[in-house]
Amino acid sequence: MSDPNGDDRRRGDGPGAGDEPPTDDGPINRPESASADIDSGTGVGDGERPGGRDPRDESTQVASEERRRKTSVVSLLVAVLGAWVALSVLVFQSGGAPASNDVLVGLAVALAAGYNYYRVTNDIPLSPAIASLVALLGIWLIVSAALLGMTGGLFWSTLVTGLLIAGLAGYNAYEARGARTVATDSGTGI
To answer: Transmembrane stretches, by residue range (predicted)?
Structure first.
């Protein structure tokens, strides 16, 4: 019987014992060949496919690429809208609590949406939690426009931008959740 650790070679009583002199230096390093037919289940690093094709369905590949492209554009648009909210206090020359609210919330939206944009463009899945947070901040902008007594152009700018942010970030959160569900699906064939 052969010892898988190679101890039989050191003792000199296994197959191929005459090939090398027995030593007590420790295990012998033997080159091991990796099996080309091992499938990790992820499709990454599994070697060449027959015909060079990806085994995933072509429509799934197209849908995934379209989803990634849409969410990156939407994330970038939301980040720009957040920056607009922060800068709109300068355009409309506002001060006090409404201005502080718009600057803080606008910067938070711009940073969070920018982070999601960074994730998507670097092939890291979109974060549903961050997209949901941005959607909630958009809803807060809608509510705060009336709650903080904003008037004139700042009121309408904050209200409309809040609606856009809430809608677009909500869409991103929905897409991120859907993408995560597809990625973690156990493959039950449904």
So the answer is: 73-93, 99-118, 130-148, 154-174
